[in-house]
Amino acid sequence: MEPSLIELKNVSKTYSTAAGDFAALKNVNLKINAGEFVGIVGKSGAGKSTLLNMINGVDLLTEGEVIVNDGGGGISVHRMTEDQRALWRGRNMGVVYQSFQLLPMLTLVENITLPMDLSENFKPRESRDRAMQLLQMVELEEHADKLPAFISGGQQQRVAIARALANDPAILAADEPTGSLDSLTADHIFEVFEHLVTDQGKTIVMVTHDLGLTSRFSRSIKIVDGELAGEVDSDEPKIDKTIRRRRK
Amino acid sequence: MKTPRTRPTNDTVRNTAASSDAMIQLHGVVKRFSNAAGEFTVLKGVDLAIKRGEFVSIVGKSGSGKSTLLNMVTGIDHPSDGQVVVNGTDIYTGMTESQRSNWRGRNLGIVFQFFQLLPMLTLLENVMLPMDYVDMYDFDERPARAMELLKLVGLEKFANKLPILVSTGQQQLAAIARAMACDPPLLIADEPTGNLDTRSADTIIQLFEHFVSLGKTIVMVTHDPSLTSRTHRNIILSDGELINETIAISLPQLRHRHMLEFTKLVEERMYQPHETIISRNESVGYFFMIRRGEVEVILQDKKKRENVISRLSNGEFFGEMELLRGGKSIANVRAGSGPVEVLALPRADFIRVMNESPITAEAVAKIVQKRLDKHRVADYRSASR
Question: What's the predicted TM-score (pTM) here?
Answer without folding.
Answer: 0.78
